[in-house]
Amino acid sequence: VILPGLGMQADSLETKTATLPKVSIKPPKQVIGKTTNEAISNGVFWGTVDAVNGLVKRLRAELGKSPTLVIAGGNALEIMPHLSGKWIHNPTLTLEGLRLYYDEQKAARS
User: Fold this and answer.
1) Does the structure show a pLDDT above 90 at 110?
2) Which of 4, 23, 64, 89 shows its CA 20 to 30 Å from the CA of 79?
3) Contact status, residue 80 vs residue 89, Cβ threshold 8 Å
């Protein structure tokens, strides 16, 4: 499953709305923000955490067992402590996937 990162979500709120500001996303202390910036940051952060936790629940139901949970991306270490289950952090996952794709394409041309 692939989701947009925290920065991409925040950027879309800035670029796709008339007046919302660009906001840095950081782990909030609470859910309710006291300012627009906090409300955006909190919504993006906790929305992502809850989306990931919800997807894991659906994956478990679909697979009938607990999947291996691997997290990658720029904000992985920030959201990981708030996720349910045991996660493996792999910061090079995208590069590994590209390498596998390259190797498959190379083998197919041989």
Assistant:
1) no
2) 64
3) yes
pLDDT above 90 covers a percentage of the chain that reads 92
The answer to whether 56 and 69 are in contact (CB under 8 A) is yes
Mean of pLDDT values over 23-47: 95
b/e string for 34-58 if b means 16 or more Cβ within 10 A?
Answer: eeeebbbbbbbbbebbeebeeebee
How far is the C-alpha of 74 from the C-alpha of 88, rounded, in Å?
14
Give the C-alpha separation, 98 to 90, whole Å: 14
DSSP H helices in 1-110: 6-15, 36-63, 76-79, 93-109
Within 13 Å of residue 92, how many CA atoms lie on the same side as its CB? Answer: 3
Strand-pairing partners, residue 71, are: 89
CA distance 11 to 24: 9
